[in-house]
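pls read this protein.

:::
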Amino acid sequence: MIPSRVISGQNLTQQVTDFFMSVPFFERINPEEIKVIAKHIAMMDVKRGEVLFNESDKGNYICFIVTGRLEVVITKESTGEEVVLATLTRGQSTGEMAIIEDMPRFATIRAIDDSKMYILSKSAFELILSKHPHIGIKLLKGVAYVLSHNLRQTSIKLADYM
């Protein structure tokens, strides 16, 4: 679920558009198309140490980091030990899988610093896909790019581990 601390109803369109113009996820999308997406974006603030979402939570939104840093943490099944997989910063995203599939979150996301994020809900994503399919396809390509990049990084780490 989208956390209750999401700030919406504000006129974020210009701020969101300016930010997304500098994010690789949106590099295939022109400014007019970004304005369409921006109308569906909410803003969320997370305090240092606060958990954005937990491993195994139901996911229904993707976050784009505007300020701050977040850590991606998983718990080892064998020992219960937490392992930090990655640190995310400005322009990066988390939760891409949640808008594609109906599976639980695979990791916990925790704020290292006070952080600000833009949120795109799964329902907004699906609305864009149905009302603006040409923009939706470009969003899907952005998701595919991020997931592909993350898979490559994971494969490299796995190969080093083996």
The radius of gyration is 16 Å. The longest helix spans residues 133-161.
